[in-house]
Amino acid sequence: MSAFVYAAVRTPFGRFRGGLAEERPDDLAALVIQQLILKAPGLDPSRIGEVVWGNANGAGEENRNVGRMAALLAGVPVSVPGTTVNRLCGSSLDAAMIASRVIETGDASVVLTGGVESMTRAPWVLPKPGRGYPAGNQALVSTTLGWRLVNPNMPKEWTVSLGEANEQLREKYGVPRERQDEFALRSHQLAAQAWDEGFYDDLVIRAEGIGLTRDEGIRTDTSIEKLAGLKPSFRPDGTITAGNASPLSDGASAVLLGSEQAATTIGLDPIARIAGRGAFALEPQAFGYAPVEAAGIALKRAGITWDEVGAVELNEAYAVQSLVCVDAWLAQGLRAPEIVNTKGGAIAIGHPLGASGGRVLGTLAKVLRERRERWGVAAICIGVGQGLAVVLENTEMAL
């Protein structure tokens, strides 16, 4: 039995402290759940076998299990179970991978997946002492991004900042600042073009009470000159800047998966089959390279090679990380770099950690339809040295 993508939807992605700053993450998640169900005209919500949701924080308004909380807020019947997956940046792609296995085993025929992150509203936390009333000061720690409350037994080279890790990647693979800025400019230009041409009109919701109608991070006025003028963010002599890295963001995404037989239950025809999955892990500081191997595993399990792939959606955590992955895939047979992120990527669109996997999966399914390509790869790098990838087969082009 195979698992299929039936529909996808997301919020516009907001800037840190921007247009979604007043929206609780559980409310954002509930909103996309409601909108996804509306896309399935035949679906009785009580027929949903499971809600599997991604989230990287969980320390604040997500209330630990935001998948269950959001389903309840969305009005999904209380009889529908819900769980939350945390694989950091890969959380919602992991949620879809887990859901696909649930369908393939026959444990459920319809599974609602997705993810959410409000990096604006991520709380500060205070370390809790073993005994009350410590004599010294205690510092608040931000849960927005990166390492926190690090175990002193962790090797120091593993716990460098995400930016420093990517500066190391840049040194290892020799990616100059100019290539990174060019990649970032392309991301903004393609995202703006995709919006202007209506590509995102049926993927992104316009909801009452949310002021955003478009991804807030896209800069239509940026240029190579402006990007080149930005100061390095992590090293005085570094190459990574606020312009060639993904921004802190808020948003939610949702993807409806089901078996082939679930088409009658859902009221839609499937748009893509999940043909292969891959997970890979390496040294934490080298996390940006992990999608290279994860994609290779997913392709092997799908029984295809890179030269058959017609579209790739790679989450752009950093331009340097994306370029290193694309360079490696080209050496392995990828047709051309131009088939990667043809509708823009996270540098422009934004990267709300728990929601990005659902975004790349939903975008890939639509790109395959638009380009009439059979095979596509969705991939994402994950902090602490991991990567995930999924191979989709366009059902219209399947033999």
What is the topological layout?
Blueprint: E1 3-10, E2 14-15, H1 25-38, E3 50-54, H2 66-73, E4 82-85, H3 91-104, E5 110-118, E6 124-125, E7 141-142, H4 162-173, H5 177-196, H6 224-228, E8 249-259, H7 263-266, E9 272-281, H8 290-302, E10 309-314, H9 319-332, H10 346-349, H11 356-371, E11 375-382, E12 386-394
Parallel strand pairs: 3-4, 3-5, 10-11
Antiparallel strand pairs: 1-8, 1-9, 2-8, 5-8, 6-7, 9-12, 11-12
Helix pairs in contact: 1-2, 3-11
Write a concise keyword list for the protein shown above.
single chain; 399 residues; alpha+beta; 10-stranded mixed β-sheet; two-stranded antiparallel sheet; 11 helices; 12 strands; 31% helix
Report on the architecture of this protein:
- With 399 residues, the chain is α+β, with helices and mostly antiparallel strands.
- The chain has a domain at 3-120 and 248-392: Peroxisomal Thiolase, Chain A, domain 1.
- The protein contains eleven helices and twelve strands.
- The strands form two sheets. Strands 1, 2, 3, 4, 5, 8, 9, 10, 11 and 12 form a ten-stranded mixed β-sheet that branches. A two-stranded antiparallel ribbon has the order 6-7.
- Strand 3, helix 2 and strand 4 (82-85) form a beta-alpha-beta unit.
- Helix 3 (91-104) crosses helix 11 (356-371).
- The radius of gyration is 20 Å and the shape is globular.
- 56% of the residues are buried.
- The mean pLDDT is 96.
